[in-house]
Amino acid sequence: MCKFASIGAGIFLCAATALWPSVELKGQDQRAFPRFAPDVATAWQVNHADGDDYLPPEHGPGPVKFDPAHPFVPTDPNSSTQATYRVADLSNPILKPWAIEQMRQANQEVLNGKIPYVPRERCWPAGVPAYVLEPPFNVTIFIETPKEILMVHQQDQQTRHIYMNVPHTAHPKPSWTGESVGHYEGGELVVDTIGFNEKTFVDNYRTPHTARMHVVERFKLIDGGKTLQDTMTVEDPGAFNMAWTAVQRWQRTNRGPIEETTCAENNENFYNYDVRPIPQAVKPDF
Q1: CB 252 within 8 A of CB 263
Q2: Which residue has the higher pLDDT, 281 or 145?
Q3: Which residue, 25, 18, 9, 24, is CA-closest to 39?
């Protein structure tokens, strides 16, 4: 039996509440497993002002942030402060020389007045780990079943699949979000992702990666279940000098079930600015 959440006319998502716990977990303490979807109304919303930037780790190498000479100021409708576009700090020691040069060119385009590329603003998949970099106005829901966990964004209903308690396939086909497999460990959901194409960036500072990237995430509930935290470690010997760690946190909200929010109906040429075209299907999928 499932509880269904509508996301638009004729489209429903099954929260699969009756499938938990399943017979596949027989003999294990079910209380040890976090519940990210305890009911159909629960959704998750980033709870810090710059929700589409990573939070730094407590120790060790961290993600690319903004250049201190060009501070990033997010859009705030309640503030009179002028918002800015992101200019990456290229002094971060994680970056390989070729990545620095590519990002330097992207920085210069921003400083010359060009609008920088952000996947969600042009309806492209964000990829992993950048899938978690959603702005505060968006929400994410989880759909939990014994064999698979889905993460679904309200914005454009982009969906990430996490296959549970199985190994990676021998040769995963490169894709936008990679191949994610997960298991529970000490009260955390551990997700291991490989098999990426090279069409995405790892953040909103346009930090590139290669197909060799490997991402491990540890999702857990903190603050008595009010906050969801994702601690991610990124390795890519093709793009980074070392592994680095970043954090994302969401606040539990009752804004679910999610609503249908489409993207591709936006202005295609963005008021005549030179931006990446919105993806369009050239043939039907059916």
Answers
A1: no
A2: 145
A3: 18
